[in-house]
Amino acid sequence: MLDDLLTLLGLDLRTVILATGTTAVLAAGVLTWPLSALVLWRYRRSVTSGMRRRARPAAAPAYGQAGAAPPSAPSPHRPVAAGPAPSIALVEAPATGPRTQPAALTARAASSLRRAQVVLAVAGVIFGVGSTVAYHAVAGLEWLPVRTVALVALLGWVLVPALIATGITDRRAQVGLWAGLLVLTLGLPAATGTAFVEVLQLFVVVVAVPGLVIVLTSGRRIRGVAWLVFPTVGVLAAVALILYVPLTYLMVGVALDRLAWSLVAVAAGLVGLLVVYAGTAAWFYSRKVASDDTLLVLQWWVVLAITQAFLLGTQGWTDAVAAVTPLALMLAFLLVVALVHRPPTAPPVRLLLLRTFGSRRRSSRLLRDLTSRWRWVGSVELITGADLATETLEPHELVDYLTGRLRDRFVRDEGELARRLRGLDLRRDRDGRYRVNELLCHEDTWRPALRALVTGADAVLVDLRALTPANTGVLHEIDQLVALLPLERVVAMTDATTDAATLRDALDRAAALAPRDSPVHADPAPALRTVPATGDRHRDAMALLDALARAATSTSRAQLGSAAPSR
Questions:
Q1: The pLDDT value given to residue 335
Q2: Helix (H, G, I), strand (E, B) or coil at 335
Q3: Mean pLDDT, contiguous 10-residue spans, the chain (567 residues)
């Protein structure tokens, strides 16, 4: 029956399958953003609700509330005054520039980043060359040097956003990469007499269509869930289209023939593949085979390979297989590099990020710009808040949330805190990056968690932008930093929104409450280094990176060492 219908319409099964796949991919691209935004909104609400809860019911009013009595003994989370308070100065960190010698850690991060970009560039060339060979074989084209170069750039264009995603934050460099791609794919063929219309048509099919899907699924705000939402929507759309014919059979009372049962089997297989994909991605991430950034970039290459398979698959099944072969070759190359490469044996440098709450966009940009380079030399640790809950969402955490196990990820007591600290991921991924470690804490567990993270950090960045007297959490964090760490290991980011009087009062209070054994009393000239934000994201990120690199390798760190063992 289905064969007769296809014959009547002048279609073949291959064309129908390709059309179904194309429709499913486009539907997934359009629906991924709103569905991801909905999932992330629900996730933020769950995190915020968990943060506001107490791990245990309060047996008595907390200190500072009505009816509470002052503690008779010093609390381990409140510094104790130790006589005359030292005066903590505010000192602006030295400016960085082309002629400034970078810190050793800064240079190491830059070296690791360049190596990763070279590996990625080679992988992209492998994909582009392989796709060009397949395209020539299918279309029967003559090998012409100029057209070959243009096709390699065109069929492997995802290399440009992939390189930018590795940590290229300089706007001029980003514009230069995109301009170079346009020159190679459009300007070069046009300058040598190739028909511009033909080049433009191929450009639209190979770049515009998958590019739209990539843009719709790869925004920083939805990356934490898009890796799962996109294939889920695509599979469900394909399943709905595939099952339309068998369901029509059933509605009209016609028995399913062999072809209809085959469609049912294909639909079931797609659902099974989706489950396998989600489990495999979470497993790869949890086993450190790939970082979150690597998984994202690989998804872009998969989308491009699927698009090219649809394009060449109209000529036959073997041509569709030839279109995805370059992806297999690229993955094989990356796997070999990951297995052969031996990363430096230097221990990870642990960075603790503290900040004022209130602006999700500001906090997200800071974490994004900083980690793009810092993660090549060490881990980043933070206490999760509503501002960064979705920015740090990892694949296995998303699976826990969707399966109702999010509450198990909150720190409930000291035993749970000790277990989470032992479980901090301080090892490199196969691609060379370290992880972002976050702790989910209740209202009555974040203070001990903060103290533990501070004592284990090699360097601390505290974002004091938008600081006001209402930011009581940050004021407590300043107390702990002054009490527990040499200020050489602390860097503060400020701007015009930082209330200077509030900061001054917070430092004076912290110095007055610092215990006798606090490093601030042994420092003859205690000072908090600040990096004023200029509004230039690239320049600010580089200035922060260099200041933190110098803080992490300060004399005080060499003398005191890290309070937590490396893993």
A1: 86
A2: helix
A3: 49 62 78 89 89 65 35 41 75 72 84 91 94 86 82 90 84 90 78 66 76 74 80 87 81 77 83 82 78 82 84 74 90 88 80 85 86 90 85 79 86 90 88 89 90 94 92 91 94 93 94 91 92 89 92 63 39
User: Residue 446: which residues within 8 A CB-CB, separation 6 or more?
Assistant: 51, 383, 411
Q: What tokens appear for 489 in the block? A: 């290991």
Quote the tokens at residue 353: 């990020």
| DSSP classification of residue 529 | E
Q: Please name the helix (run of DSSP H) or strand (run of DSSP E) that holds residue 440, with its range, or none.
A: strand 436-441
C-alpha to C-alpha distances, 548 to 94, 139, 371, 551, nearest whole angstrom: 12, 54, 12, 5
Q: Is 497 helix (H, G, I), strand (E, B) or coil?
A: coil
CATH number of 346-560: 3.40.50
Beta-bridged to residue 351, according to DSSP, are 380, 459
DSSP state at residue 498: S
pTM: 0.81
| Residue 308: burial class (beta carbons within 10 Å; 0-12, 13-18, 19+) | buried
Return the pLDDT at 532: 94
80 burial level (CB within 10 Å; 0-12, 13-18, 19+): middle
Total number of residues shown for the chain = 567
Question: Residue 40, CB half-sphere, CA atoms under 13 Å: how many?
Answer: 28
φ, ψ of residue 434 to 5 degrees: the values are -95, 175
What does residue 75 show for φ and ψ, rounded to 5 degrees? -75, 140
Structure tokens at 217: 């699924």
Q: Give domain limits for the chain.
A: 113-339, 346-560
Contact call for residues 221 and 390 (beta carbons, < 8 A): yes
At position 335, the amino acid (one-letter code) is L
Q: Which residues pair with 383 in a beta bridge?
A: 439
Burial readout 36-54 (b: 16 or more C-beta within 10 A, e: otherwise): bbebbeebbeebeebbeee
Question: Which residues lie closer than 8 Å to 333 by C-beta, 6 or more apart?
Answer: 122, 123, 126
Nearest-angstrom CA–CA distance, 30 and 39: 16
Pairing of strands 380-383, 490-494: unpaired
- Nearest to 463, CA basis, from 349, 357, 350: 357
How many whole angstroms separate alpha carbon 257 and alpha carbon 207? 40
